[in-house]
Every structure is written in structure tokens, then in C-alpha cells.
Amino acid sequence: MTTPTGEPKGLQAVLEERGFDLTGLRSKCSPVCPFESQQCCMARLLSQQDDFCNQTSMLEKLIEDAGHICLFLPKFHCELNPIEMYWGWSKYRYRQATKPNFAAAKEAATDILNSCPVEVIRRFINRSHRFLSAYRLGLTGHAAEWAV
Ligand SMILES: [Zn+2]
């Protein structure tokens, strides 16, 4: 990815070294690549290379080095993340709380976040696991929602 002097080689040089024909290929799509495109631009082509796909991110490494498991949930699937349900539970109660001034609002936020019972948090986690199970069984959209 870098020259012997430490300068970045750039997309084109890296792909040409790997034997790709880049004739007519732009460097990057704007604003984003078309969905499910394979070779729309150099950036997409490079992102599909094994060494890029399988590279551990700094965030993953930091989390795993601390002895934890790092899981990335799919984008736009908030139903798979129990923290979203917890936020929803807390925001509903926060809106109902009386907040005469900013200090009271801050205190109400902390109190409400700490007041969620463990049983309720377990239900959020179970609900996320039921969605995971439904998706693993091949259900999608409304069918998965119905099954959960
Ligand atoms: Zn693209």
C-alpha cells in the first residue's frame, strides 16, 4: 500500500500491481456505489479483495485485546440490537417526566436510564434473539416480525 519511502501508492497503482485492467474505471463512485455492484470503481474493486475484506479493524482489535467479543450488527436492523429497545423504553419515560430546569432534566435522564429493570432488559435481549432466530430460519420482513 506504500512506496519504499512510505508514501501511499494510491488505488490505481495497488490494483495494477494485482493485475487488474482499470481501463475506463473511475476512482470512486459519488455519492455511493450502486447496490450490489462488483466493479463500478477502483475503490469498490479494492474493497472486495480478500486482504481488505478479512482485515481486522483497529476497533475490533482493541475490543478483543481487552478480552471481549466484538460483534457488528447489520446496518438498518435496529431490531437485532437490544440497546435500541432500551433507548426506546427510556425515552418514553423521559418524555413523561417533569423537567422544570436543565439540572432536573439531567437528573431525570440518569434516573430513568438506571431504573430499567433487569427483567425488562432480558426481554429486550430475548426479543433480539428471536429476530435472529427468525432470520436464520429464512424469514424476512413481516413474516419475521409476525413470528417474533
Ligand atoms: Zn463504485
UniProtKB/TrEMBL annotation:
Entry-linked InterPro entries: RNaseH_sf
GO terms, molecular function: nucleic acid binding
The protein's name in its UniProt record: Tc1-like transposase DDE domain-containing protein
Organism: Pisolithus tinctorius Marx 270
